[in-house]
UniProtKB/TrEMBL annotation:
This is CPBP family intramembrane metalloprotease. The lineage of its organism: Bacteria, Pseudomonadati, Myxococcota, Myxococcia, Myxococcales. The keyword Transmembrane applies. Keywords: Hydrolase, Membrane, Metalloprotease, Protease, Transmembrane, Transmembrane helix. Residues 125-213 form the CAAX prenyl protease 2/Lysostaphin resistance protein A-like domain. InterPro entries: Rce1/LyrA-like_dom. GO terms for molecular function: metallopeptidase activity. PANTHER family: MEMBRANE-ASSOCIATED PROTEASE-RELATED, PROTEASE.
């Protein structure tokens, strides 16, 4: 299969402008961000879970409109063949990676279980994780990584998208320089590498969702600085470099190590299957 979802180029100055990579990047990010903002504005009277789901649906619809209307191509990143398998694999990997992180932290004496809550508390974290997995993967992997990769190649897109992913989490509650770098290294690299392996969004959306839900909905720890109430009640002990501090275990050096190993595995597979895109000046 082609590693790049090729834009269907149209003749004329207007189409050259609209289909220029920078133009497509700006239009897609701006329109998706606007759709999410408007959904949250007009849905303010609705319960938060519904607003989250509507925002994810709006982001998906606007992304599809950009691909169909401006890039004029097949929506290969949402192709249905194999979608179930990739989604299941992403859910398994995301849940396993966070569970392994917590298991290592437990062995290090970094947390203790203080209680178990009602299963009903898992509902909101589940919806929040679903919305974040869909919206953020569309923006960062479907738009930013993919369009940058078209011109600058996989490695530049990987570095730039990972750095940006870390930076957008910098204003979050409890964020520090360490948490910003941690998010870039663990999630930014892992999710971009996962996208490179499949060239579709199913796996990375599911992985992102499962990580967030396992983190907040099951273990009840802060998700990127946002306090969560999950099935388990946990108390952390020890230095912030180990526990992640107020930002949550995502800022832990253990999470960074676990996710970077998984990211490296994805990158190795992408290399073996010839899914590394060279920059435009090195293509024949």
């Amino acid at each position: 299969m082609d590693t790049i979802a090729a834009v269907n180029r149209r003749p004329g100055a207007l189409w050259r402008f609209l289909q220029f990579p920078v133009t497509r990047l700006v239009l897609a990010v701006a329109s998706i961000a606007l759709a999410i903002a408007l959904t949250q504005w007009f849905g303010g009277a609705l319960p938060p879970p519904f607003v989250h789901l509507l925002s994810a649906a709006a982001a998906t619809a606007v992304y599809i409109a950009n691909v169909r209307g401006i890039e004029r191509r097949e929506l290969v990143e949402f192709r249905l063949d194999g979608a179930g398998r990739e989604t299941a694999l992403g859910l398994l990997i995301g849940a396993a990676l966070f569970s392994v992180t917590m298991a290592i932290l437990c062995l290090c004496g970094a947390w203790t279980l203080t209680g178990v809550n009602s299963i009903g508390v898992m509902g909101y974290p589940l919806v929040s994780a679903l919305a974040a997995g869909v919206s953020e993967e569309i923006l960062f992997r479907g738009v930013f990584f993919r369009i940058v990769e078209e011109s600058l190649g996989s490695w530049a897109a990987l570095a730039l998208s990972a750095a940006l992913f870390g930076l957008v989490h910098a204003p979050n509650p409890g964020a520090t320089a360490v948490s910003t770098v941690a998010i870039a290294l663990e999630a930014g690299i892992l999710l971009a590498a996962g996208y490179m392996c499949t060239r579709r969004l199913w796996l990375v959306m599911a992985l992102h969702m499962a990580w967030n839900f396992t983190e907040g909905g099951i273990f009840g720890t802060s998700v990127s600085g946002t306090e969560a109430h999950g099935l388990l009640a946990i108390e952390f002990h020890g230095p912030e470099l180990l526990t992640g501090g107020a930002f949550g275990p995502e800022a832990s050096l253990v999470a960074v190590a676990v996710c970077m190993i998984a990211g490296a595995t994805f990158l190795a597979r992408a290399h073996r299957t010839n899914r590394i895109v060279r920059p435009f000046w090195r293509r024949s």
